[in-house]
Design a protein that fits this description.
A: 8 helices; B: mainly alpha; 8 helices
Chain lengths: 215, 164
């Protein structure tokens, strides 16, 4: 085998004549082209992921649900959770920026892969945080309904509910909220981790290989 | 000043472009992907150039950035299938005296190397470029001992590919 590899080495080092040769101008043009590297994609996708949960608040459905929170007497919870939420978001963005800046092609391959994966992990933690927050909001809303005397009015509707047993109605709303919270969180989580997996497939594979070499 | 830097960079890259072409040859299967990867490596080299500052040789520095781009940053735009014309040009046997057995052997070897994973290819590439194990280890971020061990394993792997 070594002989064959030596043969290959000899041939490889004589290959220069067969390789394409680019001119000064051709190379010069290339340095102004846009990169399509995975790091650039990771950066763009991460920024979108940071922004999306916030854009959701701008939807009319979400503004309506703000009113529901107040109706349920949970306005303070909302304020508090927003303060916590934005502090954590700022922390994540800072962390993401710091790690992104550390990515350098001048590092060795293992270090470079590790830095990129760490940057991505920050976004992953951020998404897990947002998903938990969504799930918790549903749960808190369910608790609010449970404690409320007139859940229908609190939710901003004016239906007469004479024919329905109020306890039964309450139970139905609570179960619906919990199930909905579960389904929404799970669905968003699935979509996210699928995207995450596709994006990092190659990096994870190569990083694992380099790490296994050092065991 | 920037113009000087651009000129200096392109001149050096033009002179050393074979290194990049060789990386592209190992990591791609057709002419389009080859050019794509060459361009991406050029962009990454240019981006990193201001930090280079001549601490090591330009070519040494190139190996690292080029391999990092191939292993990590480059995204294949499409599933590329090996094209015949590309293969025949890239892997035309260069032995001085034509020897059919040798040619057959080399062809098999090249095909076997191209079936390896990204990281294994990087090791083989540096080995073929006659880099010592210290440099291979430093480029990949593993220990020298493990680089040796890994290279032996790759040799065995190639053996299995060649003699299934």
């Amino acid at each position: 085998m070594t002989d064959e590899l030596e043969l290959l080495k000899r041939d490889w080092q004589n290959k220069d004549k067969q390789l394409p040769q680019l001119s000064f101008n051709e190379i010069y043009k290339m340095i102004w082209k846009k990169s399509s590297s995975i790091v650039k994609w990771i950066f763009i996708i991460s920024i979108i992921e940071f922004a999306v949960p916030h854009l959701l608040y701008l939807l009319p459905v979400m503004s309506k649900s703000m009113a529901v929170w107040r109706g349920l007497g949970l306005g303070n919870f909302l304020l508090l959770s927003n303060i916590v939420h934005y502090s954590v978001v700022l922390f994540f963005i800072y962390q993401f920026y710091r790690r992104y800046k550390e990515i350098s092609t001048l590092d060795n391959a293992k270090q470079l892969l590790s830095n990129i994966l760490k940057t991505r992990k920050t976004v992953k933690h951020y998404v897990i945080f947002c998903l938990s927050l969504i799930f918790i909001s549903y749960l808190v809303m369910a608790v609010g309904i449970y404690l409320s005397d007139d859940p229908i009015a609190a939710m901003g509707y004016n239906y007469t509910t004479e024919n329905i047993d109020p306890e039964k109605l309450k139970a139905t709303i609570i179960v619906t909220l919990v199930v909905l919270g579960f389904v929404v969180t799970l669905l968003m989580g699935c979509i996210y981790f699928l995207l995450y997996g596709i994006l990092l497939k190659k990096l994870n594979k190569n990083y694992k290989e380099l790490k296994e070499m050092d065991i | 000043m920037t113009k000087d830097l651009e000129h200096q960079f392109v001149t050096e890259l033009e002179y050393n472009q074979n290194i990049v072409h060789k990386v592209c040859t190992l990591y791609t299967n057709d002419r389009d992907s080859h050019n794509d990867l060459f361009q991406e490596i050029t962009i990454q080299l240019w981006k990193a150039y201001p930090k280079f500052r001549g601490e090591s040789k330009f070519s040494t520095w190139m190996y690292r950035v080029a391999l990092n781009t191939a292993i990590t940053l480059y995204r294949k735009s499409k599933k590329s299938i090996p094209t015949q014309d590309y293969e025949s040009v890239m892997f035309k046997i260069t032995a001085d005296e034509y020897d059919p057995t040798e040619e057959q052997q080399l062809k098999l070897m090249y095909n076997a190397v191209r079936q390896l994973g990204d990281v294994d290819k990087a090791l083989v590439f540096l080995y073929l470029e006659d880099k010592d194990y210290r440099e291979i280890a430093e480029t990949l971020g593993i220990t020298e001992v493990n680089a040796r061990v890994k290279m032996n394993r790759i040799k065995n792997k190639l053996k299995t590919i060649l003699n299934p």
